[in-house]
Design goal:
heterodimer; A: about 400 residues; 14 helices; globular; B: about 260 residues; alpha+beta; two-stranded antiparallel ribbon; elongated
Amino acid sequence: MVEKLLKGPTRYYLWLLSLLVFIGVAGTAYIYQLRTGLGVTGMSRDVSWGLYISQFTYFVGVAASAVMLVLPAYFHHYKKFKRMIIFGEFMAISAVVMCMLFIVADMGQPQRMLNVILHPTPNSVMFFDMLVLFGYLVLNVLIGWVTLEAERLDVEPPYWVKYLVYLSIIWAFSIHTVTAFLYAGLPGRHLWLTAVLAGRFLASAFCSGPAILLLLVLAVKRMTGFDPGQDALKTLTKIITYAMCINVFLFFCEVFTAFYSGIPGHQHPLVFLFAGHDGHMSWVTPWMWACGCLAFASLALLIPPALRDNMNILPWALAMLIAASWIDKGLGLIIGGFSPNVFETLTPYAPTGSEILITLGVYAVGLLILSLLWKIAIGVKKEAGTFELH
Amino acid sequence: MNTDRRHFLKIAGISAFALSAGLAGRAAEAAVAPGKYEHGPNTLHAGRWGMVIDTRKFPSEADYLPLIKACHEAHNVPNQPGPHEIKWMWLAPYKEGFPDDENHYGPEKFKTGKFPLLCNHCENPPCVRVCPTKATYKMEDGIVAMDYHRCIGCRFCMAACPFGARSFNFIDPRIAMPSDKAPNPAYPTRMPGVVEKCTFCAERLAAGKLPACVEASGGKILFGDLNNPKSDVRKALAENFSIRRKPSLGTQPGVYYLV
């Protein structure tokens, strides 16, 4: 199947080449960071995690979201998703690789990373996160590859794959729950110390991940003509809409608890994000308001079926939803978690140029892996005659 | 000349052989015998080390400065102010150290005075709970210690510590403090990319000495065994009203403040 990578139009090679060049540039920024230390980032003693860890968190969600295709297809025998599943699984692979790269980029001593395995520490959520992420990667590689191979040969996949798929469904929920537990079990970080965090993470993942997938599939449809099927599109859009509603609902649950209880510590991060702290307005505040507006605008376009099923409007609604969920989880979650800090004072954080460049470099690696895997999937579908919608 | 060279080669060869045999022997020994350590003859022992800071005896901020100086010199803590600051012991207003204990109408000391902050060496340390490599760990005497050589620099411990007691080497600390200019050559300087914090001077206790800040305080800071009802710290706590930082989080800090 790998041979499918070799033949493609010129724009395919140009795309890969430009990704590689960009990765190279970002790679030099990383080498600079490696040599001089994490001081090149905007992080500090009081805001000790930043863009890397927030992107890691966001993309664990994207990885987990493949389950929104797999679960209906395997638990409810919703066959119309089966055409698209491989794209979800392959997107999960690239997302998990991105997560791992973000973790490595964030480490002070990455050459010691095997210490996590050499000195296994079951009481550390980070140890578990490593285990479940790696397991999820293996599961998706195995399931994706074996089912695609079966499709190519026009045979049923081996029976044991079904059990791996069931396992991967549970596993997908677990990876994002464990990621939430990285935060939700820390005393003294008000924004994160909430039982609803794992639920929020899952809800935000299950709307944003499929939204990204859908946008990419629509782009692929334009480029190659691959049609996922109108019914599959509509069902996935419904799933996205429900998940986004739950996501917004859970956010307001947080707001209620913080403000009706009147406990200052619980209010401070939310106040900081939306109105600033002690008269100090952060650059994040306009982003957070944009996040709120985009979230409601996307819901306004997704909830009425007439708008949701309009293929001219849908991509815009999805893009707004993705932007809103990214600001919420990719900026607000981490910055709000450290602002105010444990001294109830404010230490400003903003990512630096090289931090952003390295982050974009990891995005480029993700896109590269995704492009290659999807190229294989499309090539196999064309060869097997499953490319056209019957 | 020729004989000289032959002689030299002979000596060099024998030395190299002896050295490698010796090293191999050492390596084999290390591989066979599990690591173990013994207490030195002068080591100070405790069931759980604790500290009582009598803030009533420090009338001004300046009275704390010699303690901080002693600590930072004993551990080669570099002076690099700003967002990448390393601090083992530092001063902060009451409302920053004890943010849950807000009182608008209290004595002046609690409004404008500064209090010394350091690692609390908690009984239930969240930093130890979250560390994925056991680079930070609790010793048998309750001290929360750090292994700078195992730390991968993930900073999970910094997110977990509710006291802000941990510093990360965002930049090379040896720029501000080169190893050959370190005030205490007996203590290692650190490398970039690892976390560090107060160790209750575990290395000094092992040599029979009290922590540097305690020694510098001239009796205004007590240090002793919290498990022993007859210890100075327990007597001080029994006779005086004391407070701890953020007790509601249940970490059971080992640093007490007499106020």
